[in-house]
Amino acid sequence: MTQLFPCRLCGTLTLAQSWGGGECPACESVSMPLLPRMEELAEFYARYNDTYSGGGVSEGRNLQRYAQRYLRLVRHYCNTGSLIDVGSSNNPFPNIAAGHGFHTTMLDFEKPRCLADGIDYVKGSLNDQLPAALIVKQFDVVTCWAVMEHVPDTQAAAARLAALVKRGGYLFMSTPEAGTALTRYSAGRSPWFYPPEHLTLISPQAFKRVFQPLGFESVTWGRLELSSLRFAARYGVGLAEACAGALLKRMAPAAWLRLRIERKQRFQGVAYFVFRKLT
Q1: What is the pLDDT of residues 83-98, one digit of tens each?
Q2: Which residues 6+ apart lie within 8 Å of 165 measured at CB?
Q3: CB atoms < 10 A from the CB of 17, how many?
Q4: Which structural domains are found in the chain, ordered by start?
């Protein structure tokens, strides 16, 4: 029996696949027909900080480099003011932001041992209502690195992020790349989708659709990488897979569709998004 479910980003009916999710035919985001229970997620994340190193064998030593890359992106738009980093886990970004003059707050379900003195820590997550300490507080900069793919309710999480941003302030996010030419044509699904950790893969058009009604303008989005060499390697793989997949789709659409369901892409891109609050 074919199972259709509403896309969790735009509501369009989406076909559930055997791999546990479905790719929306309208906004091209990936979501799930049935989410894990909140108790399951709470149990999973209770141990998350003990094992998280940023994803991948080399990422432990790259966390500092990614944090510096995030800071360069933020400082391109804002050099000072109040900043809250949401869902930091063991990412050293709050420490680095505080060291460069931002009055820094961290919101997360658990306080990491590495958090520097002088940074305000607030216990909480985007899965719940904002803590009382933040309800009447807003920030010049809100950052949310590699978090939105984890939350079960993207719309609610976006509203909570929006409430933290001052009028004229900026919201910065990163998330796995989805719904672009490099993911659209490949003969395989995204390897970034792996519940209970990654629940939703959000396309650029879906991000705009979510945040514009909340009073934000999309400033820019792009692809995030640490160096030109790594960029060429990562996105060279993506381009090769997309070109080969586009050719196969044209010549043998049934075979392309079968591989799209059965196979995972090798490409794993990371996108960043910058929004500015207008109202």
Answers
A1: 999 998 889 999 999 9
A2: 138, 139, 142, 171, 216, 277
A3: 16
A4: 41-177+196-226+269-277 (3.40.50.150)
